[in-house]
Design goal:
With 397 residues, this protein is α/β, with parallel strands linked by helices. The protein has two domains: 272 residues, Rossmann fold (3-Layer(aba) Sandwich); 81 residues, formyl-coa transferase, domain 3, CATH 3.30.1540. Helices cover 40% and strands 14% of the residues. The protein contains 19 helices and eleven strands. A six-stranded parallel beta sheet has the order 3-2-1-4-5-6, sandwiched between helices. Strands 7-8-9 form a three-stranded antiparallel beta sheet, with helices on one face. Strands 10-11 form a two-stranded antiparallel ribbon. α2 links the parallel β1 and β2. α2 crosses α8 and α8 crosses α9. The longest helix is centred in the middle third of the chain and has 24 residues.
Length: 397
């Protein structure tokens, strides 16, 4: 825990992909300072409902991935803004600078790797873009889902392409970059050298297409949407019950034989269904026969029946039910606003950390717009109240 407490991150961030990455680092106990333009700020601050009437730029959507951070406003288009950035990096001994600006803005804002390496030789510099540093195409998560093949694989067979229910390119790129940062920290610890990390959302997204690309490019298979079924295993799908839906996933022939041996499912004990290939060839009739049985049973009875014979099954839960799952509820994170007492519930960490455990799964409340200007610029950089007032009046902060 103490190791990560000494890591300082300065992040010119907005939207989701970089804020989720720095949120992950905050869960480790790193100090994360997010930089925002003093006028425009992070557009995600304005998405959703305000958590308190009269609170500007603290809307619900922003709350989800920005706990555990501090916030400073800074206009990097102005020379004094660039000077303050360099002071922040030097005086705060910043370990990691990160941005998800378009690469054409690096030089204009003074945030390019060469400039910041000149300020701190061993800095770890992170730039996240949609399509790599040589491209300046604007990229949002659904665009990456479209271009990166995820929409082609999501939806009903023969139906229209669909976006996934969560921003997988955003969050996947964050996770991949998190790993690269850990490697860069290790390299620096061993050699004293900093690193430049250029992360491409398209590269991250297409790296998940392991089976689809190999099957398409090597074996000539056409891989597309299949709804709730699976290309290579059956039965794997959503089935109706008397009070909802259940997902059943049979992973091999032995599991299917156990299913077919149950009296209610006796109609499945057919010669052509003994092997997976035969089941896939007749998957519509197979699934129809299973649904005829499951719709006469409660969801709980179906899940318990499957569990007894070693077949994976689950109720299709809504988000409120997921949050009440005992294995999830005990790992939910929280953040309390010291100003109002408002208590925020947050999703679990991908894996718990010593920092979270020591802090009883609590993080500091998501920072208000420019909330830490006086603390960081005044107390830590030594600027006077008049200096800060002048910077604000001139649109620098």
């Amino acid at each position: 825990m103490e190791l990560f407490r000494n890591i300082r991150i300065l992040s010119l961030e907005q939207a989701t992909v970089l804020p989720f990455l720095t949120y992950r680092l905050a869960m480790d106990g790193c100090r994360v300072i997010r930089l925002e333009h003093p006028v425009y700020g992070d557009p995600n601050r304005l998405v959703g409902e305000p958590f308190l009437q009269g609170e500007d730029r603290m809307n619900s959507y922003f709350m989800a991935i920005n706990a555990g951070k501090e916030a400073v406003t800074l206009n990097l288009a102005e020379p004094r803004g660039k000077e303050i950035l360099c002071r922040l990096i030097a005086d705060l001994n910043v370990d990691i600078f990160a941005t998800n600006q378009l690469s054409r803005n690096y030089g204009k804002l003074g945030i390019d790797y060469e400039t910041l390496r000149g300020v701190k030789k061993d800095i770890i510099w992170v730039g996240i873009t949609g399509f790599g540093p040589d491209s300046n195409e604007v990229a949002y998560d659904p665009i990456l889902q479209a271009r990166g093949g995820l929409m082609e694989l999501t939806g009903e067979a023969g139906g229209t392409p669909q976006v996934a229910g969560i921003p997988l390119p955003d969050m996947g790129t964050s996770e991949h970059t998190y790993g690269r940062i850990m490697k860069a920290l290790f390299v620096r610890a061993m050699t004293g050298r900093g690193s430049r990390i250029d992360a491409s959302m398209l590269e991250s997204t297409t790296s998940w297409l392991t089976v689809p690309i190999t099957m398409t490019c090597t074996f000539g298979k056409q891989i597309s949407r299949r709804g709730n079924t699976h290309e290579f295993f059956a039965p794997v799908s959503v089935f109706p019950t008397s009070d909802g839906y259940v997902y059943i996933s049979v992973g091999n022939d032995k599991q299917f034989q156990a299913l077919a041996a149950l009296p209610p499912f006796g109609a499945l004990a057919r010669e052509e269904y003994q092997k997976n290939a035969g089941r896939i060839a007749d998957v519509k009739n197979l699934n129809r026969a299973i649904a005829d049985v499951t719709r006469t049973m409660t969801t709980r009875d179906v899940v318990e029946t499957m569990n007894k014979i070693g077949v994976a099954a689950s109720k299709i839960k809504n988000i409120a039910e997921v949050a009440e799952d005992p294995l999830v509820k005990s790992r939910l994170l929280g953040a309390k606003d010291e100003k109002t007492g408002f208590d925020l519930t947050l999703a679990p960490a991908p894996a718990s950390t010593p920092f979270l455990e020591a802090n009883h799964m609590r993080l500091s409340f998501p920072p208000r717009f420019g909330e830490h200007n006086e603390k960081i610029l005044g107390r830590e950089l030594g600027m006077s109240q008049q200096d800060i007032a002048d910077l604000k009046a001139d649109g620098i902060i």
